[in-house]
Amino acid sequence: MSIDVDILNIWISPGHDFKGRHGLGRMDHGVITVDSVECHAGRGLVGDRFYDYKEDFKGQITLFDKAVAEELQKALNLTSLDESAFRRNVMISGIDLNTLIGKQFTLGDIELSGSEECHPCYWMDQAIGDGAFEWLKGRGGLRCRITSPGRLQTGSTVLKIER
């Protein structure tokens, strides 16, 4: 099955702002917006904090649905929303990401395996706004393994579900 999707944004970050920071406060490594990124099978996105994080890591690349971001903004009555604050790598539109859990698929010219939901953490209340953590449960995005290398770029593309 093939689906037309739009890759709206791609972000990488050189360091962790929240991971391992319980009780210590947030770091500020920033997020870098890129038009394209090199994806290495089994390793991650070149330049990202999770590149070579650990063997067979489930979150070598993370995707987030633009429709979910828009719904959250309305639900929390936010006047603006910095979508990079979700700390996911790719903002995509055109598909319900939860349908890709456990599936092999291609996105542009890279092959991915949908590992699991990218569960939100309590830090979402600080990064996005009060109530974001609870609201995002079940809608936190998709963690994937990269199964073949390639370059991912912003723009319209085809997502093809293999199995």
Task: Describe the model.
It is built from 3 helices and 11 strands. It is mainly beta. The protein has one domain: M1 Pyruvate Kinase, Domain 3, CATH 2.40.33.20. The N and C termini lie close together (9 Å).
Key structural traits:
single chain, 163 residues, mainly beta, M1 Pyruvate Kinase, Domain 3, seven-stranded mixed beta barrel, three-stranded antiparallel beta sheet, 11 strands, 37% strand, MoCF_Sase_C, MOSC_domain, catalytic activity
- Total count of helical runs of at least 4 residues: 3
Uncertain regions spanning at least 5 consecutive residues: none
* CATH topology term: M1 Pyruvate Kinase, Domain 3
Roughly how many Å is the radius of gyration? Answer: 15 Å
What gross morphology would you assign?
globular
GO molecular function: catalytic activity; molybdenum ion binding; pyridoxal phosphate binding
Pfam families: MOSC
Domain MOSC: 32-161
Organism: Rubellicoccus peritrichatus
Itemize the secondary structure elements and their pairings.
Elements: E1 2-12, E2 32-34, E3 36-40, E4 44-45, E5 61-65, H1 66-75, E6 90-93, E7 104-107, E8 110-117, H2 124-127, H3 132-136, E9 142-148, E10 150-153, E11 155-161
Parallel strand pairs: 5-6
Antiparallel strand pairs: 1-2, 1-6, 1-11, 3-4, 3-10, 5-9, 7-8, 7-11, 8-9
In short:
The protein has 163 residues and is mainly beta. It has helices at residues 66-75, 124-127, 132-136; strands at residues 2-12, 32-34, 36-40, 44-45, 61-65, 90-93, 104-107, 110-117, 142-148, 150-153, 155-161.
